[in-house]
Design brief:
UDP-N-acetylmuramoyl-L-alanine:D-glutamate ligase, eight-stranded mixed sheet, about 300 residues, alpha/beta
């Protein structure tokens, strides 16, 4: 079987508390009840891609524990192929500690756990076993950078396409950026790469144009202002619909998953504008529920 979409990334158990406001340093606040759910940028994006109609194969690692078993069950129930996920016995499943304020903004601290055990050599072997000329790879940076770079190089060698959500923000080699088609970043991540101030769609478009010298195509997400994109011969701004914001935690992952799903579905005929349109719609839907992953229908 040749996979049309491979999602390489993290899988976490999310512990979320809703608060009136985020605490100041050294301050203790009382929050609402604790919500425990499956999360992690890789798992979130895999589920978002499946929700958008793709049949993604997930590559990642979980611990040999209850959280890991719940994660695999949740991904499988959501339409994600988990047969290639590693189950490790020397680290627990990753954990994310999340606070969400009443206006929907969040803070997140992640303990990597099993995600740090994702191995570049095993990832390469896994990709070679299932990828082909039209396979799309979607990756993020909550796993070791070496695994992401190896995966992108392998996909490129096989004739596929890499979509990298450069989150959380960190320094990455130019060799990885050069394989991104597209690179997906938010305003802060784009600033880290370019040094440019980004507060408006026009400023984001300028940053995307600058990044196009380093990537094959670029998308910069702008929250409630939608997203801008740039590719050779095509660029634009796609605004987001106005919705009631409950929690922004899953918006970026929903966006990336939907973009990758469209690119995997359309293959050689894929247009970045259409993919970004689907991503903007998915992100707008995601902010209307609490938690990083969509509720089951």
């Amino acid at each position: 079987m040749t996979a049309s979409l491979i999602v390489l990334g993290s899988a976490n158990t999310d512990y979320t508390v809703l608060v009136d406001r985020h605490p100041l340093p050294g301050e203790t606040l009382l929050g609402d009840e604790l919500v425990i759910a499956t999360g992690g940028k890789g798992a979130n994006q895999a589920l978002a891609a499946a929700r958008s109609g793709a049949m993604p194969v997930f590559l990642g690692a979980v611990g040999d524990d209850g959280n890991g078993r719940q994660m695999l069950d949740a991904l499988g129930a959501g339409g994600v192929d988990v047969s290639s996920v590693a189950v490790v016995d020397d680290a627990p499943t990753g954990i994310a500690l999340i606070t969400v304020s009443r206006d929907g903004e969040n803070t997140i601290v992640v303990a990597a756990g099993a995600n740090a055990r994702v191995n570049a050599h095993e990832v390469e072997a896994g990709i070679r076993a299932i990828a082909g000329r039209r396979t799309v790879l979607l990756a993020q940076l909550e796993i070791p950078l070496a695994a992401v770079l190896t995966a992108a190089e392998t996909i490129d060698e096989l004739g596929g396409r890499t979509v990298l959500n450069l989150s959380p923000s960190r320094e990455v080699p130019d060799a990885l950026l050069a394989l991104c088609d597209p690179l997906i970043v938010n305003e802060a991540e784009a600033h880290d790469l370019t040094g440019l101030t980004i507060g408006t769609p026009d400023e984001a478009a300028a940053a995307a144009g600058a990044l196009l010298d380093r990537c094959r195509s670029v998308v910069i997400t702008l929250g409630g202002d939608g997203a801008v994109f740039a590719a050779p011969g095509a660029s634009g701004h796609l605004p987001a619909p106005r919705v009631t914001v409950v929690d922004t935690t899953g918006a970026g992952d929903a966006f990336a998953g939907a973009v990758a799903a469209e690119l995997a579905e359309s293959g050689a005929s894929a247009e970045l504008r259409t993919a970004v349109e689907r991503g903007v719609a998915a992100g707008a839907a995601a902010v209307q529920w609490l938690g990083a992953q969509p509720p089951r229908d």
